[in-house]
Amino acid sequence: MFLPDNYEFLCPVKTNSGNRALEHLPFELEALSARKPLIVTDKTVTGQGVIRKMINAFKDSGVTIGIFDSMPDVPDMQLVTELSNIYRNGEHDAIVALGCGSIVDVAKVVNIAASYSVKILRDLAGDNLIAHPLSPFVVVPTLAGTGYETSKFAFIENLTFSSYFLMPDLVVVDARMVRSESVETTVATAMVALAHAAEAYTGPAKNPLADSYAYAAIQYVKDNLMNVLKKPRDTDGRLALANAASMAGCAFSNMQPGLLHILGEAINAMFHIASGICMGILLPYGLEYTIQKNGYHTHDVLLPLSGFDEYAGTADNLKAEKAVNIMYEMQQDLYTVTGGKIPRTLEEAKIPKYMVNDIAEKVFKNGAKEFGIDDYRMVLEHAWEGKPMSWD
Amino acid sequence: MGDYREVQAGSKPLKRSYIAVMLWFVGRAIQAAARVDKAVREEFEQLPEGFSFALGVEPHGPYMIVGKNQKGRVKYLGWKIEDKHIDLKLKIKNIEAAVLLFTFQESTTVASARDRLIVDGEVPHACAAVRILDIVEVYLLPKLIARLAVKRYPIWSFRRKYIGRTRIYFRSLLGY
């Protein structure tokens, strides 16, 4: 059992997960002294009938809710201004983000604007510049997400806000809200969770509390992703994946971004390929890279991936390699099950070979100097070719 | 602003009515069981004088209130909690959770473990109230359903189970 010499861990997020979990929302808001929430979502989510379930959940509570359901694909500060006006003029006292990704980011920034002022919003971008708790903030993910909803970060335009006050008070993971998603979205969500959890579990900031979140997240993804892809109506499986995303987000919030996260987000920004798909491609190569740095921790990741029997039956010096092989097998299985929709390599993701070097340079120049440019390049080149590093 | 709207949450009158009737009957059955069943009587004897507890749905009810007067007599005190001093509240978080509980898809203990039922008050008193509810459910429900609703279905004598059940039903309907 590994215990670091010193560590910190914070996860103030209350999670309410399960069948009909959404119905608890009025009670939980009342407990947060909130009587008139503003629900922020987009037309895609509304189109899935999810908003009706949300309204039904408030029945019998006597609560009036405000709904804004026109979140654009690329939100900007103008939208934040508009929403903070709605929040103030509507006398709302809590924000509920229904959905994931940019919906959550915008809701977080609106919450800052509601407590401070829109005028000084840009001055609050950065690390730990928010000085006091904000209004009650709830996230109801719809699986189209990344697990970032539980994180302390909010991204809008070119601004990054980072504060523990941005972590939601409550995340409601309801089985009915995470049902109808495309194959790509399901895989992307699961792979972001897996990548973040694996990085938390094997990274330099590894600690026993983050381990417990990461372990469960890895296990849930491994045990449920294939089932969900084969049986899209597997509600329990989807619920498990949504939980995995949420837990991985908590672990991720307590870490510095890892190599998989950095490269996955960079490729997403440059080529508009879902960051989860990118991280899924990079995952085994990232783990192979980690073995070189931190083999002992990497061999630990075999336990949630394979289960007790296989872990116990594998010699210590082969555990890390076996964990990586499971990741390669998983990649191949995803490719097969989805009929080739999920790429195994960066080449299959249609990223030109000559851009590999550009990605590495751009990442390094943009300030992600936790790793060397050669490290980025090495992982990217292997992931482009689909050639394990152990073959070198 | 055109994409913003306010929605007044509606209600679920059928489910509320069902829960209200169930709570009304369970309340009267507790009063009856306290007179008929020794174990229920002993549970109430352990509770302080003037003690009252409520079981109901947040945020606006319905509730059922049962209390013990100065003479130790157990009474069903109705469904309005506003004008009463309540020592212990067993609060079901919402009407859907109440439906799960009162359609016996989930026992009181499981509802509590799954955070659908929460307690305002002292835990030992809450445990006593749950034990009383379990006994009353065994009286009121056929074994097939009661097994789902209680922690462990007890083995009772014929006299206790069937004579007691008849007396409790009779007293509950007549309200004494």
Distance between the termini of chain B: 59 Å
Order of helices and strands of chain A: EHEHHEHEHEEEEEHHHHHHHHHH
CATH uppermost class of chain B: Alpha Beta
Helix content of chain B: 40-55%
> Which architecture of chain B would the CATH scheme give at its second level?
2-Layer Sandwich
Main structural class of chain A: alpha/beta
Describe the structure.
The complex is a heterodimer of chains A (392) and B (176). With 392 residues, chain A is an alpha/beta fold. Chain A has helices spanning 25-31, 43-47, 50-57, 77-89, 102-115, 183-202, 208-230, 235-253, 259-271, 275-300, 302-306, 308-312, 316-337, 355-365, 373-385; strands at 14-18, 37-40, 64-68, 94-98, 126-127, 137-140, 153-156, 159-162, 170-174. Chain A folds into 2 domains: 14-177, Rossmann fold (3-Layer(aba) Sandwich), CATH 3.40.50.1970; 182-391, Dehydroquinate synthase-like, alpha domain (Up-down Bundle). Chain A contains 15 helices and 9 strands. A 6-stranded parallel beta sheet of chain A has the order 1-9-6-4-2-3, sandwiched between helices. A 3-stranded mixed beta sheet of chain A has the order 5-8-7. The longest helix of chain A has 26 residues, at 275-300. With 176 residues, chain B is of the alpha+beta class. In chain B, α1 (13-36) crosses α3 (95-102), α1 packs across α5 and α2 runs antiparallel to α5. The longest helix of chain B is centred in the first third of the chain and has 24 residues, at 13-36. Chain B is globular, with a radius of gyration of 17 Å. Chain A binds chain B through residues 16, 18, 20, 23-24, 26-27, 30, 55, 58-70, 82, 86, 90, and chain B through 1, 3-12, 15-16, 58-60, 93-97, 100, 114-116. β3 of chain A pairs antiparallel with β1 of chain B.
